[in-house]
Amino acid sequence: MSLLDKPFSEDLPLSGVKVLDISQGVAGPYAGKLLGGMGADVISVEPPIHGDYARLIPPFFEDDPHIEKSGLFLYLNTDKRSITLDLSSEQSQSVIKPLIEWADIIIENYAPDTLENLGLGYKDIEKISSKTSLVSITDFGQSGPYKDYQGTNLISLALGGLLQITGDVDKEPLKVGGRPAEYIAGLSAFSGAMVALYAQRASGEGQHVDVSMVEAIATAQMYSGLNYAYLGENRVRANDIAPMYQVSNGHVGVMYRQDNWDDFCDMIGRPEMKDDERFIDNVARRENIIELNQIVSEWMIKQDKTELYHLAQGQRMPFGYICDAEDLISSEQYIHRGYFVEIDHPVCGKLLYPGHSFFWDDEKLPMERAPLLGEHNESVYEALGFSKEEVSALTEKGVI
Amino acid sequence: MSKNALEGLRVLDLTQVWAGPTCTKILGDLGAEIIKIESGRRMDISRGGTTANSGAGLYPDGNAGDEPWNTSGLYTDRNRSKISACLDLTHPKGVEVLKKLVEKSDVVIESFRSGVMERFGLSYEDLKLIRKDIIMVSLASQGGSGPERSYGSFGATLEQTAGIASFTGYLGGDPRTSGTFLPDPMVAFLAIGIVLSAIEQRRTTGKGTFVDLSQREVTTGVVGEMVMDYTMNGRKWGPNGNRDNVFAPQGVYKCYGDDSWIAISVRTDDEWNTFSEMLNLSSEQVNTFSTVSQRFAQHDELDRLITQWSQDKDAHEVMHALQMVGIPAGVSLTGEQILADEHLNDREFWEEVDHPMVGRRPFLSRPFKFSKHPASTRSHAPLLGAHTDYVLRDIAGLSDEEITELSDLGITSNDPTAFGSTAF
Fold this sequence. Notes:
The complex is a heterodimer. Chain A is of the alpha/beta class. Chain A has helices at residues 27-37, 71-76, 92-102, 114-117, 122-128, 153-159, 180-203, 213-221, 223-231, 261-267, 282-287, 289-300, 305-314, 325-330, 332-337, 377-383, 388-396, and strands at 18-21, 41-46, 81-84, 105-108, 133-138, 208-212, 244-247, 250-253, 320-321, 340-343, 351-354, 358-360.
């Protein structure tokens, strides 16, 4: 164990794995958060002054824009240490090299060639530390004709093929709420990092992992590509996979399945529909979805969302109900599993955060708050051999 | 090139439908040996039923053939790079054989409704008795505990119960789900890393692990800031169409041609200034849109002006023209276009696979590339039970007599018609 390592007492799945997170925003930090959540020691390197640009993105605690109050940043950076360093300054080289040597995995999400131009491309990293893997996350990947194109979450949904099949056929294609392309790229980068680590344990060698947000979506969309590959037809936007109905206090979603059809007809008080040719199987129901929706809507509007959800699930019908944040926080299922965790933060105080999505050997792994900007400068730079005076000098120069 | 990244890893795959099979498919592409256990009695439901009309729906050129369960697109997409063995786990002798396979496997991954593995006598406690360091990863809809543990779901209903649908939708409209089952690939991409984290822990401690994952919780995990706005400020999010909540304008605009659209994001004032020149706005108009708050306030008007400009233009030409000046733009690609896309093809994203009943078709690959261990499709999706003999003899170590007995009892039958239709 080197001085640089964070002292840990718990025996966590990835205790002893070292991650240098020089990414910002959503995808890279999410991958770092997942690795840190598993017990890896994650040092996040943020630009001086404002830090990771996610610190500037709302929502802010009490709607007060402040680098320590971004809900996006607070959520995405649990289980990490934070140091500040201007990677574009020449003096940063002496700091970053020992950190590269220390790390098993480096996560970055700069535009392609940015790190090469700073002397920190994979070829440079390989020379400094051959065991270290570099996980790069970009909109379009490290190669290809669109490599230098500009992207956003929406652009990835478009070029990944998911946008075109979401929404109504008579309206424009519709994005999925939130930042799905960035998060899915983050999940992919977490797993990509683990594949590289597995291979490194066998060979001793690191490698370059190339994660593209467009390809993360192109892998996730499935139906659009497959529909064309199998049928030679473009899938049309439709709301028929899992139609949603308005109920008295919200919306409920239904999956029509053959196994459940008779029970469903009984539940809505229309047993005669069991033998109705218009709705006899999935193909017929899809063709006559408008008539079916009319009949079902009349019954639905009188129902209560959670009562109906439990009633249907009790009969093995995989219904859903539309949960907003309040519904999630008050979900008995989430409460029982302790999904939301209360985390204390020196600036924002105690807040509920989405926690780990799993139990590990019947335990919830711990989750520590996101670091303040540069919170660990002193301890990390000291461990790297810098004196207090040197750290002050670098700080004055704006390097850290 | 060196050997596959996950060479030597053996995974017993009891998952079905989408999330689990996609996880194991990618592990298989990377070199792990994936033994998929199904049975004639209980096929993966993405194989569809025994007849073509049962809802899986995606058959090659609309032709299900004599064995629809072997041609279903939903199955073939998610089950390449695996071998398939038939084993009826409702029969004690089937369970006995499965236990022999556990002994020879590193990982067991399953996605049954919570409680089903226990009923088979295959809980983690049972498996640990067979192999002390076994890793078991359970991908139940709601996890293995809590009042809803036995509830079922599909990706679409998880989008609803996990929070995504509540703020997906047209401006001022009803909540919507995505055009796919987005939680499934999310769970799959996470589960790859979960499996390998358990392997890393086994490497350092010698211990196995039981992971009880909730697909619904994974899905809420990707809308963290939506939850945080509520816990910080009591604010709930609703559908906001295609708009962003930080910059403006952003939208999906009509282009020339049937169902042709361009997505455009204008992130900064500089990008807006460049774009407004292309839109040929009057200096008066430019002044009224100069700040992001002005652009948010007049987003409807901007959408109208952008549509006016884009509607008679080719979507790809608009994309390239905007990208040339640094403005994020992307064509909303159709299925046909995504398969032909020059960028994805340059990066060899699509992998053509020969399948004896489906022919040669392109399939999506993976969300990542590795410089030293390139992954690829290693084999087409298996016909039901294609490798039962190999798995029983060479992996479980059964004798010819034992294999014949199992076959006579119907435990290894790969004929789903003998059990009646398992319709979706």
